[in-house]
Predict the 3D structure of the following.
Amino acid sequence: MRRNALKFLLAALTVAAPLVAVSCGTTYSSTPPEYPTGDLEGSRYETMRVLADRLVERLDGLRDELRVTRNTQAETPVFSDLLEKARRFRDRMQDYSNPYRYVRNDVEELDRLARDYDDRTRNVSASSRAVQLWQGAQDVIDRMRRLLAGENVDVPPRGTESSPYPTYPTTPTYPTGPSGSYGSVLSGSALDDFRRTAHEIVVRAMLARDTAERAGGAYNDSARRVLADMSYFVSGARDLESRASGSSVDRRDVRTYVDRLLEDARRIDRTMRDTSAYSGAWTDWAEVMRLLQRLSDIAR
């Protein structure tokens, strides 16, 4: 009798397992094959590094959208853990000596947290933009998993979700001269100065954004939208810093980018002051604009 009962229990579990897998799953693709050992070098590591940045971009946008729409049900502790883990992973990926096993462990943890969050919020209503941003974040994690599984994956472009916030072009375009020249190239001390200033802009913008974020609960929806704009600006400033890290930097290329950032920084500054929002961030933001003007002068 006991042996028959045990057989019945094993059979029931075998039938139930796929149902459990379906109910706890997400929109990710099917489980990838076993991971190879240590195949994450060169261009593949660079792909993972950019994917890490794209993930933070989408999660930051989702957090801002949830706050703008006051969706407290969706902004759970699990989501905060996922965002913090994604930020740490992005920063760690800047170290190109990062061992493969650590990258794999980080991606597995991101995947676990994302699935947990998706499961907990399955019946929570959200704006269409929040849904798009979350689906975008899931897609990025799926690409990370498939990259670790040995597949070649593409990097999704920035700003693929419809958004009222500013986005920054990945490849500025401009007319060429008769000889195909794109203007002079930054080099030597001018390039070093440009790189240092670009890095300081990222630091100052993050300080201003974090100061505003800590005070965010005390302001209205329009002020929270300013906070979202600041987050997108930080992403754009990071892109500029990345562009300046190349072996050669064309003046006209970065000039277009810097001018766009400066325009957005001034607009955010005007909005903050007109609405008297985030006064604690004004000093750092004024320094962001000063540094951008310096970059614009260097690129001239």
